[in-house]
From TrEMBL:
InterPro entries in the record: LysR-type_TF_proteobact-type, LysR_HTH_N, LysR_subst-bd, WH-like_DNA-bd_sf, WH_DNA-bd_sf
Protein name: LysR substrate-binding domain-containing protein
Transmembrane segments annotated in the record for this chain: none
Family of the protein in this entry: Belongs to the LysR transcriptional regulatory family.
Record Pfam families: HTH_1, LysR_substrate
Keywords associated with the record: DNA-binding, Transcription, Transcription regulation
Amino acid sequence: MTSHAPSLNAIRMFEVAARHLSFVRAAEELHLTHGAVSRQIRLLEDTLGVALFERRNRAVFLTREGAAFQLTCADVMARLASGIRAIQQAGESALVLSCEPTLAMRWLIPRLGAFRERFPRIELHLVAAGGPVDFRRGHVDLALRRNDFQWGTDCHAEPVAREWTAPVCAPALLEAGQLHLERHCQLHTASRPDAWPCWGAASGRATPASRTARYEHFYLSLQAAGAGLGVAIGSVYMVGEELANGRLVAPAGFVEDGSDYYLLSPTPFAGDARRLDVLGWLREELAATRARGVDGDATK
């Protein structure tokens, strides 16, 4: 704006006075004195070089120029208010959630639509990553992780679900409804190298294998299992769809493997409604998935 342009403060006072056709009521709405409103409008008229009000018998009326200017000011103030609300809502609602890649692909992404319907004011941005998280450098607000590493004491952690795992394979590998582990290739993954030993210890069963194959990511070992290439350890949260449609079976059943999923935050959850909403939703959805996979018929 140039030095001859009217101030936004004066425009605001004019808009209110024009709406009420009263300097007194404008002063009441703006919590100012009648004199302050009158002076600002006089300055505005001097700056514009036109009279905006006619003052007659202690009443004010809009001139033709004032009526036209009122429409412009009302539109400007409405647009400004709308822009401010949009910025405030975006600043309050946008959260960046970092999630382990396989869990993100197989469980979280298919549920994001339901999350948005339930929490329309929370914009959740997803980043697929695992292991330690640098919240500041990574521009991350929350991280969903399994407790297979140590996070710092300055990280706020809330448990969301226990991990349940089971050997999973294509139905074609079953013999009379039974899975003979020793007759099939055991599929391992570099991202969860202890998956088989943990399941064996938790289930109390031996895990013999005629041969083994190793994949870089957990996701790839599950894909290989679905393709009939062997038996992989699957998390109940990541194989639910395949169990439901019959592409995978888990005849040995799921057991808690001793690990847990946590939601991590650089700031406390208490007092932040957005973080608490995400935390509560994750707990509910993971519990429902676990119940369907562990207690339902999908494992049969």
